[in-house]
Write a structure and sequence with these properties.
It is found in: Cell membrane; Nucleus. With 166 residues, the protein is mainly β. 4% of the residues lie in helices and 46% in strands. The chain is built from 1 helix and 10 strands. A hairpin with a 7-residue loop joins strand 5 and strand 6. It is elongated and about 55 Å long.
Length: 166
Amino acid sequence: MECLLGLIKVRVVRGVKLAICDPLTHSSDPYVVLRLGQQKVKSSIKYKTINPEWNEDLTLSITNWTIPVKIEVFDHDTFTKDDSMGDAEFSILDFVEVAKKDLTNVSDGTVMKTIHPENENCFAAESQIVWKEGKVSQDIVLRLRNTETGELILHLEWVSIPGLGH
Protein backbone atom coordinates (compact mmCIF):
# COMPACT_ATOMS: atom_id res chain seq x y z
CA MET A 1 0.00 0.00 0.00
CA GLU A 2 1.42 3.36 -1.01
CA CYS A 3 1.52 6.07 1.63
CA LEU A 4 -0.94 8.94 1.19
CA LEU A 5 0.97 12.24 1.26
CA GLY A 6 -2.07 14.48 0.90
CA LEU A 7 -4.61 15.66 -1.65
CA ILE A 8 -4.44 18.17 -4.46
CA LYS A 9 -7.64 19.95 -5.31
CA VAL A 10 -7.46 20.92 -8.99
CA ARG A 11 -9.93 23.59 -10.01
CA VAL A 12 -10.45 23.34 -13.75
CA VAL A 13 -11.17 27.03 -14.28
CA ARG A 14 -11.61 27.39 -18.03
CA GLY A 15 -10.40 26.59 -21.52
CA VAL A 16 -9.24 29.26 -23.98
CA LYS A 17 -9.48 29.00 -27.78
CA LEU A 18 -9.89 25.22 -27.81
CA ALA A 19 -10.02 23.35 -31.11
CA ILE A 20 -13.22 23.40 -33.18
CA CYS A 21 -14.39 19.79 -33.50
CA ASP A 22 -17.92 20.44 -34.75
CA PRO A 23 -17.51 22.39 -38.03
CA LEU A 24 -21.26 22.90 -38.49
CA THR A 25 -21.58 24.87 -35.24
CA HIS A 26 -17.96 26.17 -35.22
CA SER A 27 -17.68 24.89 -31.68
CA SER A 28 -17.03 21.83 -29.54
CA ASP A 29 -18.49 20.08 -26.51
CA PRO A 30 -15.35 19.93 -24.32
CA TYR A 31 -14.63 18.13 -21.07
CA VAL A 32 -11.38 17.53 -19.20
CA VAL A 33 -9.89 14.28 -17.90
CA LEU A 34 -7.15 14.34 -15.24
CA ARG A 35 -5.02 11.27 -14.60
CA LEU A 36 -2.49 10.62 -11.86
CA GLY A 37 -1.20 7.06 -11.75
CA GLN A 38 -4.29 4.83 -11.57
CA GLN A 39 -6.64 7.71 -10.70
CA LYS A 40 -8.90 9.28 -13.30
CA VAL A 41 -11.33 12.15 -12.71
CA LYS A 42 -13.28 14.21 -15.21
CA SER A 43 -15.15 17.47 -15.49
CA SER A 44 -18.64 18.01 -16.79
CA ILE A 45 -19.23 18.61 -20.50
CA LYS A 46 -19.70 22.21 -21.66
CA TYR A 47 -21.79 22.29 -24.83
CA LYS A 48 -21.22 24.38 -27.97
CA THR A 49 -18.16 26.37 -26.86
CA ILE A 50 -14.43 26.64 -27.50
CA ASN A 51 -13.99 28.91 -24.44
CA PRO A 52 -15.64 26.80 -21.72
CA GLU A 53 -15.97 27.98 -18.10
CA TRP A 54 -15.94 25.00 -15.74
CA ASN A 55 -14.87 26.26 -12.30
CA GLU A 56 -15.02 22.66 -11.09
CA ASP A 57 -12.91 21.13 -8.35
CA LEU A 58 -11.46 17.68 -9.00
CA THR A 59 -9.43 16.01 -6.24
CA LEU A 60 -6.42 13.73 -6.66
CA SER A 61 -4.79 11.65 -3.89
CA ILE A 62 -1.02 12.07 -3.83
CA THR A 63 0.92 8.89 -3.06
CA ASN A 64 3.83 9.42 -5.44
CA TRP A 65 4.84 12.99 -6.14
CA THR A 66 7.25 12.08 -8.93
CA ILE A 67 4.44 11.16 -11.34
CA PRO A 68 3.12 14.05 -13.46
CA VAL A 69 -0.57 14.88 -13.69
CA LYS A 70 -1.75 14.11 -17.23
CA ILE A 71 -4.60 16.10 -18.74
CA GLU A 72 -6.66 15.38 -21.81
CA VAL A 73 -9.39 17.51 -23.32
CA PHE A 74 -12.07 15.73 -25.34
CA ASP A 75 -14.99 16.77 -27.51
CA HIS A 76 -18.09 14.84 -26.45
CA ASP A 77 -19.84 13.05 -29.32
CA THR A 78 -23.15 11.27 -28.88
CA PHE A 79 -22.82 8.55 -31.52
CA THR A 80 -19.08 8.25 -32.16
CA LYS A 81 -15.89 8.05 -30.10
CA ASP A 82 -15.08 11.36 -28.40
CA ASP A 83 -12.45 13.41 -30.26
CA SER A 84 -9.20 14.38 -28.59
CA MET A 85 -8.79 18.16 -28.39
CA GLY A 86 -5.24 18.04 -27.04
CA ASP A 87 -3.35 17.06 -23.94
CA ALA A 88 -0.85 18.41 -21.43
CA GLU A 89 0.93 17.37 -18.29
CA PHE A 90 2.56 19.06 -15.35
CA SER A 91 4.84 18.02 -12.53
CA ILE A 92 3.60 18.30 -8.94
CA LEU A 93 7.09 17.78 -7.49
CA ASP A 94 7.73 21.44 -6.61
CA PHE A 95 4.15 21.94 -5.42
CA VAL A 96 4.24 18.97 -3.01
CA GLU A 97 7.74 19.91 -1.85
CA VAL A 98 6.48 23.36 -0.80
CA ALA A 99 3.29 21.91 0.72
CA LYS A 100 5.31 19.51 2.92
CA LYS A 101 7.42 22.32 4.43
CA ASP A 102 6.74 23.84 7.83
CA LEU A 103 5.08 27.08 6.79
CA THR A 104 3.96 28.28 10.24
CA ASN A 105 6.26 31.33 10.23
CA VAL A 106 5.80 32.23 6.55
CA SER A 107 3.87 35.46 5.98
CA ASP A 108 0.64 35.44 3.99
CA GLY A 109 1.03 35.99 0.25
CA THR A 110 4.63 34.75 0.11
CA VAL A 111 5.73 33.37 -3.26
CA MET A 112 7.41 30.06 -2.40
CA LYS A 113 8.60 29.13 -5.87
CA THR A 114 8.24 30.34 -9.46
CA ILE A 115 8.06 27.88 -12.35
CA HIS A 116 8.97 29.16 -15.81
CA PRO A 117 7.67 27.84 -19.13
CA GLU A 118 10.23 25.62 -20.84
CA ASN A 119 10.38 22.77 -23.36
CA GLU A 120 10.03 20.11 -20.65
CA ASN A 121 6.70 21.43 -19.38
CA CYS A 122 3.41 22.58 -20.88
CA PHE A 123 3.31 25.90 -19.02
CA ALA A 124 2.21 28.78 -21.24
CA ALA A 125 3.10 31.39 -18.62
CA GLU A 126 5.14 31.77 -15.47
CA SER A 127 3.45 30.09 -12.50
CA GLN A 128 3.93 30.81 -8.82
CA ILE A 129 3.43 28.50 -5.86
CA VAL A 130 2.06 30.78 -3.14
CA TRP A 131 1.37 30.50 0.60
CA LYS A 132 -1.89 32.40 1.08
CA GLU A 133 -4.63 32.27 3.72
CA GLY A 134 -3.06 29.20 5.29
CA LYS A 135 -2.95 27.22 2.03
CA VAL A 136 -0.41 26.35 -0.62
CA SER A 137 -1.85 27.18 -4.05
CA GLN A 138 -0.76 27.65 -7.65
CA ASP A 139 -2.40 29.14 -10.74
CA ILE A 140 -1.37 27.40 -13.95
CA VAL A 141 -1.90 28.16 -17.65
CA LEU A 142 -1.15 25.06 -19.73
CA ARG A 143 -0.63 25.01 -23.49
CA LEU A 144 -2.29 21.97 -25.02
CA ARG A 145 -0.14 19.64 -27.14
CA ASN A 146 -1.16 17.51 -30.13
CA THR A 147 -3.61 20.15 -31.30
CA GLU A 148 -3.38 23.44 -33.17
CA THR A 149 -4.83 25.68 -30.48
CA GLY A 150 -5.94 25.82 -26.90
CA GLU A 151 -4.96 26.50 -23.31
CA LEU A 152 -6.31 25.32 -19.98
CA ILE A 153 -6.37 27.42 -16.85
CA LEU A 154 -6.11 25.52 -13.57
CA HIS A 155 -5.84 26.41 -9.90
CA LEU A 156 -4.13 23.94 -7.55
CA GLU A 157 -4.63 23.85 -3.82
CA TRP A 158 -2.99 21.51 -1.31
CA VAL A 159 -5.39 19.78 1.09
CA SER A 160 -3.57 18.61 4.18
CA ILE A 161 -4.89 15.60 6.01
CA PRO A 162 -4.82 15.75 9.82
CA GLY A 163 -2.25 13.35 11.23
CA LEU A 164 -0.11 13.39 8.08
CA GLY A 165 2.00 16.37 9.03
CA HIS A 166 1.57 19.59 7.04
